[in-house]
Amino acid sequence: MINPTNTYTVPSVSITTARTGASNKANALGMRAMQERVYAKRGEQYLLIKSPPASGKSRALMFVALDKLNNQGLQQAIVVVPERSIGGSFSDEPLSQYGFYWDWQVAPQWNLCNAPGADEPRVAKSKVDAVRKFLASTDKVLVCTHATFRFAVDELGIEAFDKRLIAIDEFHHVSSNPDNRLGSQLGALITRDKVHLVAMTGSYFRGDSEAVLAPADEARFETVTYTYYEQLNGYRWLKSLDIGYFFYTGRYVDAVAKVLDPALKTIVHIPNVNSRESLQDKEREVNEIMSALGEWKGVDPSTGFHHVQAKDGRILKVADLVDDSDAAKRSRVLSALKDSAQKENRDHVDVVIALGMAKEGFDWIWCEHALTIGYRSSLTEIVQIIGRATRDANGKERARFTNLIAEPAAEQTAVAEAVNDMLKAISASLLMEQVLAPRYEFTPKDAGEKPGFNYGPDGYQTGRTNVGVNESTGQYHVEINGLATPETPEATRICKEDLNEVVTSFLQDKTVVERGLFDKENTLPEELTQLRMGKIVRERYPDLSEVDQEAIRQHAIAAMNITQQAKLALAQADAAGSSQGSTALLDGVRKFVNVRDLDIDLIDRINPFDAAYAVLAKAMDEKSLRQVQASIAAKKVSIPEDEARELAKRALQFKNERGRLPDINSADAWEKKMAEGVAALVRYRAQAKATQAQGKSSDG
Are residues 249 and 394 in the same domain? Predict the structure, then answer.
């Protein structure tokens, strides 16, 4: 039922960590854990760093770049960032003070992110000229934006960058789509093979479901992966992260007060003026948000921050990054937020209200709450926004992300747009569960214990499903009966490191989420876990063998479903009054795994969206939920030809195992579905033959 506030929550992700302190410990060279891992790969020509926000990617690049410049014969390093504001992350660093061999230095004239003028073709010529001068100089490091680099490559040609290191920050902005200019240029640089590339990203996937790199190009990169779980588990202060979705009715500014806690350091991202949630008056929206915080008392002339008196008498400092009517005022606010002297000052600012800003690269370590109004079409953007709140800071123990979503009203006749918003929100939630979970290492049953893993007080036992945990890496080892094993090194790497990218593609498939959540009565789990995921894997890795493709499919579904089932087990434990500690997720995994003989067939028979639906059903009133389900079910179509072909393959496998074809009258729903697929494929082939015969007849 809807509660009296017209705002209710879908709490979806909650992670509690051990706070080992390992993330911030430095070795003799001044490198933290992730940076040390990257530096070990410094000799690679093509290096891809997948690591969450605040993990130290910028400094990791500095260590690698300096070695390439001093020991590997490269002439210069060019650091490319998506926004000018991020250029500050690559300013001078006295690395020798911490034990490294050299200092990182960027001459002022070569940090083009600080140069005047926007990154547009009509005003970019001076910056391209600066790149040309830099390439001809003996100086070592240049920092510029993606746009400046694109213009420079277009004008100077890729040959001009030979024997240089190109470092691309926020690499998920790149795409293999030919229309993505930076992606095309990088492809050309890789083909020419005369540069070194370091690519860095906190989310190696795009919101538009395009691939970042072509498979052949991606295969040339050595990958270093540092997971969210490792990062958070290794913090000293931050021990828990909560992610929730709040559905509201009416105006969002009326619901904000229910989720905006003045006691928390908060970034509020308001909706785009063209979105459904917007009131079409961004200044008014900011004013109403400030009114929800308290009584306005004026503006600080030195910082441009608003002063708002909260109900408890405290004066809150609010930074408005929405109002762009006064350039000088906006610049003053931005400068105050970026003031390095205030970085460690928790009281410098309390609330930041932003529109299209304060996302990737915005470094405010004290942020405890990222509140985003309206769905975000990009899962990448969600990950980046959450990253604003996951910095470790003295005394900061909890962080949260809240997405305020307009609920589909039950009386609406057209709910498609609202349903789409919900699907995006839930997809992002499920993705974050996977991103935040430890990495799994799956092996067939009784494959033997893995060194470095703890299997509990009884140790590893043959003949049962085992779950081990590596305390230092946060990895889980899970044995699964009947699990397909990858045959090639590339498939093995994907199963160990890239399952999140496969799951992302799965969750970005709108049909998957629609049918998995809202058409459960008419959708078998195997249609999602075998057919849809199988299709996604084949399209993503077309050059791999069928054996490797099936292994990747099984590993991806296992990772997603085990996380979901662990979440359900934890929810049941909470309902029984159990408290969650730092081993909560591991406890949930063991609870799910150890009560049954875990095999891949069982995993394939679980709907990956069951846990999300269980929460959603509690949050929405039945009338709204049923209307959404009806709108989804109404769009269901007959079996497409590619799905029929895949069902026929599964039917052949069924025949090989059981000595007969699936029976269309079987009581087993999946067997019946495979038989329907065979029948559908027969019809498609008959239609194709008839069309072909008709064409020959016409020719005759």
Answer: yes
DSSP string, 338-389: T-GGGTT-TTS-SEEEESS-S-TT---TT--EEEEES--S-HHHHHHHHHTT
Would you tell me how many other CB atoms lie within 10 Å of the CB of residue 467? Answer: 23
**Tokens representing 5?**
């506030």
Question: Does residue 133 belong to any structural domain of this protein?
Answer: yes
Residues 157 and 243 in one domain: no
Q: pTM for the whole thing?
A: 0.75
Dist. CA 44–CA 325, nearest whole Å: 48
CATH number at residue 41: 3.40.50.300
Candidates 564, 609, 561, 567; CA nearest to 584 is 567
Dig out the tokens for 414 from the structure: 């057209």
Determine, yes or no, domain membership for 429.
no
29 close to 96: Cβ distance less than 8 angstroms = no
Asked whether residue 375 is domain-assigned, the answer is: yes
48 and 142 together in one domain: yes
Higher-pLDDT residue of 274 and 296 is 296
Q: Is the pLDDT of residue 7 over 60?
A: no
Buried b (16+ CB within 10 A) or exposed e, 118-134: ebeeeebeebbebbeeb
Contacts of 635 (CB under 8 A, 6+ apart): 514
Region of 452 (left: φ > 0; alpha: ψ -120 to 50; beta: rest) is left
**Structural domain that includes position 181:** 22-231
Both structure tokens of 409: 């009203």
Distance CA 466, CA 554 (A): 18
Report d(CA 244, CA 265) in Å as an integer: 17
* Residue 446 domain flag: yes
Lowest mean pLDDT among 146-150, 156-160, 174-178, 514-518: 174-178
**Alpha carbon separation from 121 to 127, 154, 160, 587 (Å, rounded):** 10, 11, 20, 56
Q: Are 685 and 631 in a shared domain?
A: no
- Higher pLDDT, residue 132 or 13: 132
What single DSSP character describes residue 173? G
CA angle 436, 441, 442 (to 5 degrees): 120
